[in-house]
Design goal:
The protein has two domains: 153 residues, Rossmann fold (3-Layer(aba) Sandwich); 121 residues, UDP-galactose 4-epimerase, domain 1, CATH 3.90.25. The protein is an alpha/beta fold. The chain has a seven-stranded parallel sheet, sandwiched between helices. The protein is globular and about 65 Å long. Helix 1 crosses helix 5.
C-alpha cells in the first residue's frame, strides 16, 4: 500500500513508520523537518506545515493517510479538504481523553459519552481543552470521510522514544532501587499500552480498511498498581522496597496525581484507567508482556543524558515524603 503519515518522526509516528516499512508498504511522511529529519532512508519526505503550508500534499494520491498530529479542528479540516479525494481511507489518532470523566464508569467502552467538542475558534491548547479539541477533530474526520475513517483512541502510550517521560519515570526510578514511594490504593487498576503494539495494530487495520472508533490500551488482563510495580521491580532485578502512601497522605504532602506520581489518579477518577478493551482485542490487537516493555524502555533511557525527567517527583522530594511516612 501507499500510506501517507502526517507526522511520523516522534514516538507513535516513528513506530508507525517502522511497522509499515516492516510490512512492505510504500511510506510518505509529511512534517516540518524540525524533528529527526532524514531519519528514514526508505521514506519519501514532504516538507510543510499543517498550520498553513500544505502545498506539498497537492496533486498526489495514496491508499490511506494516518493522521498522528491533528489537534485543532480547523487544522484537521484544512488537511482533509485536500486529502479526501487523494486517499480512500483516513485514520485519525485521537485519544481516550475525548470521554467525559464525570460520566465515565469502570469498564466503559466506545459507547461512553464524549466531552462536548471544542468550538472551531479555539486556537490554543490547554489540558482542559485537549479532550474537547480531539472530539472536535474526530467530528471533522467522520463528517468529511463518512464510512471511510478509522478513529483510534489510545490510552497512555509508553515505550522507547516517549517524549513525556511519564512511564519512563517509573522505569528509571525502580531501576535505581532502594526505598520507593508507591501512590494510593495498591489494588486500583492501571492501564497503558506500548506504542509499538498500537503501531502494529493500526497498520493492520489500515491494510484491512477497517472503520469505526476503537479504544486501544492495555494490558489484556486487569493489572493492579501493586502488580505493575512488583513485576517491573522483578523484570529490572532492582530490589526496590515499596512504601505505600494513601491518597490523603499524598494530598497532605502536596503530591499531585499523574505528573508528580505517574499512573496515580484519585479513586474517584480512576475509571479512565479501567476501560473495556474487548472491541480492539477482537479486532486483532496484540499486547506484548509488561516485562519486555519495561526492559526496552530502560535500555533506551540509558542511552539518554540522565537529567531530570519531565514527569515525576525528584529524588529529594521523594525522600521528604518517605521520611514523613
Amino acid at each position: 500500500m501507499k500510506i501517507l503519515i502526517l507526522g511520523g518522526t516522534q514516538f507513535l509516528g516513528r513506530h508507525l513508520v517502522e511497522a509499515a516499512l516492516a510490512r512492505g508498504h510504500e511510506i510518505t511522511i509529511f512534517h516540518r523537518g524540525l524533528t529527526n529529519p532524514k531519519m528514514f532512508l526508505r521514506v519519501e519526505e514532504l516538507l510543510g506545515d499543517r498550520t498553513g503550508d500544505l502545498e506539498a500534499l497537492r496533486g498526489k494520491n495514496w491508499d490511506a493517510v494516518i493522521d498522528t498530529s491533528g489537534y485543532f479542528p480547523h487544522i484537521v479540516h484544512a488537511a482533509i479538504e485536500i486529502l479526501k479525494k487523494a486517499v480512500q481511507h483516513y485514520v485519525f489518532i485521537s485519544s481516550i481523553s475525548v470521554y467525559d470523566d464525570l460520566h465515565l464508569k469502570s469498564q466503559s467502552d466506545e459507547t461512553a459519552p464524549r466531552l462536548s467538542p471544542a468550538d472551531d475558534t479555539v486556537r490554543t491548547m490547554s489540558p482542559s481543552q485537549y479532550g474537547p479539541l480531539k472530539a472536535a477533530c474526530e467530528n471533522v474526520v467522520t463528517a468529511a470521510m463518512p464510512g471511510q475513517s478509522l478513529i483510534v483512541r489510545p490510552g497512555l502510550l509508553v515505550g522507547p522514544y516517549d517524549p513525556t517521560d511519564r512511564f519512563t519515570w517509573w522505569v528509571r526510578r525502580i531501576a535505581r532501587g532502594g526505598d520507593i514511594l508507591a501512590p494510593g490504593n495498591p489494588d486500583r487498576q492501571v492501564q497503558f499500552i506500548d506504542a509499538r503494539d498500537v503501531a502494529d495494530w493500526v497498520i493492520a487495520m489500515t491494510e484491512a480498511g477497517q472503520t469505526g472508533a476503537y479504544n486501544i490500551t492495555g494490558p489484556e488482563q486487569r493489572l493492579s498498581m501493586k502488580e505493575f510495580l512488583d513485576r517491573t521491580n522483578s523484570a529490572l532485578r532492582a530490589g526496590g522496597n515499596f512504601f505505600w502512601a494513601s491518597e490523603a497522605i499524598l494530598n497532605k504532602q502536596n503530591i499531585g496525581p499523574w505528573m508528580d506520581m505517574p499512573l496515580w489518579l484519585p479513586d474517584t477518577e480512576n475509571a479512565s484507567l479501567e476501560f473495556n478493551l474487548s472491541k480492539a482485542l477482537k479486532a486483532g490487537l496484540k499486547i506484548r508482556a509488561l516485562e519486555e516493555t519495561v526492559c526496552d524502555i530502560l535500555k533506551w533511557d540509558q542511552t539518554r543524558p540522565q537529567t531530570l525527567l519531565k514527569a515525576g517527583i525528584t529524588a529529594e522530594r521523594e525522600e521528604e515524603v518517605l521520611t514523613a511516612l
